């Protein structure tokens, strides 16, 4: 009995490890040493990244470091990575809302930590670690939404581009301030921004470091909705917005996200083949059979 439980958990750990390796961009073959960078990041503590999984299949991920405008400390980067593993294995999940504590989104990386790991080699390792994590966020089988209240600056603006959708509260701003810090985005924000708003618009935002308010963000396609509420009510409003897109069973919602992901990331022929495989996972499945038994009409 004990041996079979042990084997089972070993299989689960192995599956999670393989899953993580598939979803990540960098591993040891790219010269990336995750253990080493995690040990470095652990020296910069403070704040937390808190995950709440709802019974309705919607999770909330809160970037929480209020005294520093939710800047990412080293331990928060590690926690964000760990929360991705938790979400990847959440079979009942359908959606995710990423937001910041204290009615502001995130002011990027913690400047104290950045100063302390300022060698190019360490910078590249931190960058690979965060790109892996944010790519896994983007590839979650969940519909993800960034709820931007207050400010999303630097790495905070990059974090919001890793979500499928962005909702902006009144008076909020997204701002790629990297150039003013003598940097360019490194957490994948430039590449993702170009996919979202095109290279000319992205070029303008990155080179001017302009504040993007909700109306302009909506106009250029960076935001999907301007919310009416601020404070805690905006989280409620985000839940309501997301619920339009997460109706139905987790299996179908997750399959849908996978189809979108393959269309987004793969070449057409590969995406078509993946779509066929994913179709096979829902065809004749419980949700499909239930719909057929009801002889649904779509009037
Ligand atoms: C991936 C690469 C990157 O992320 S590069 C971008 C790094 N981020 C930044 O440069 C943002 C720097 N911060 C700011 O511009 C301002 O603090 C902003 C966010 C506009 C807020 O201004 P304001 O509302 O006046 O508040 P404040 O400056 O008094 O800040 C409150 C406390 O929070 C701190 N804080 C803020 N951001 C960070 C950060 N990124 N890292 C570390 N600490 C940060 C401030 O220092 C301030 O702390 P304290 O009260 O002075 O102890």
From TrEMBL:
Pfam families under this entry?
A: ECH_1
Q: Which GO terms describe its biological process?
A: fatty acid beta-oxidation
UniProt keyword annotation of Lyase present? yes
Q: Where in the cell is it found?
A: Cytoplasm, Cytosol
The entry's cellular-component GO terms read:
cytosol
List the Gene Ontology MF annotations in alphabetical order: methyl/ethyl malonyl-CoA decarboxylase activity
Q: Report the InterPro entries cross-referenced here.
A: ClpP/crotonase-like_dom_sf (IPR029045), Enoyl-CoA_hyd/isom_CS (IPR018376), Enoyl-CoA_hydra/iso (IPR001753)
Q: Any idea which UniProt keywords this protein has?
A: Cytoplasm, Lyase
Query: What PANTHER family does its record include?
Result: ENOYL-COA HYDRATASE-RELATED (PTHR11941), ETHYLMALONYL-COA DECARBOXYLASE (PTHR11941:SF27)
**Family recorded in the similarity comment:** Belongs to the enoyl-CoA hydratase/isomerase family.
Q: What is this protein called?
A: Ethylmalonyl-CoA decarboxylase
Look up and give the organism this protein is from.
Leptobrachium leishanense (Leishan spiny toad)
């Amino acid at each position: 009995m004990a041996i079979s439980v042990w084997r089972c958990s070993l299989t689960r750990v192995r599956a999670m490890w393989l899953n993580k390796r598939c979803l990540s961009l960098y591993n040891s073959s790219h010269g990336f040493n995750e253990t080493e960078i995690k040990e470095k990041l652990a020296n910069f503590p403070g704040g937390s990244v808190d995950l709440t999984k709802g019974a309705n299949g919607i999770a909330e991920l809160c970037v929480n470091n209020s005294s520093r405008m939710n800047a990412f400390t080293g331990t928060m980067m590690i926690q964000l990575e760990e929360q991705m593993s938790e979400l990847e294995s959440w079979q009942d999940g359908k959606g995710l809302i990423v937001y910041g504590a204290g009615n502001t989104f995130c002011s990027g990386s913690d400047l104290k930590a950045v100063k302390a790991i300022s060698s190019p080699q360490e910078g590249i390792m931190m960058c690979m670690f965060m790109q892996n994590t944010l790519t896994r966020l983007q590839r979650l089988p969940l519909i993800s939404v960034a709820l931007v209240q207050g400010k999303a600056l630097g790495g905070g603006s990059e974090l919001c581009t890793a979500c499928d959708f962005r909702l902006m509260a009144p008076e909020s701003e997204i701002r790629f301030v990297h150039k003013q810090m003598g940097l360019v985005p490194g957490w994948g924000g430039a590449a993702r921004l170009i996919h979202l708003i095109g290279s000319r618009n992205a070029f303008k935002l990155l080179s001017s470091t302009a504040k993007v308010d909700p109306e302009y963000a909506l106009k250029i396609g960076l935001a999907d909705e301007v919310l009416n509420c601020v404070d805690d009510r905006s989280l409620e409003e985000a839940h309501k917005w997301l619920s339009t897109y997460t109706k139905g069973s987790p299996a179908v919602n997750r399959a849908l996200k996978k189809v979108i992901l393959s269309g987004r990331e793969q070449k057409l022929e590969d995406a078509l083949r993946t779509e066929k495989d994913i179709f096979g996972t829902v065809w004749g499945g419980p949700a499909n059979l239930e719909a057929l038994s009801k002889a649904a009409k779509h009037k």
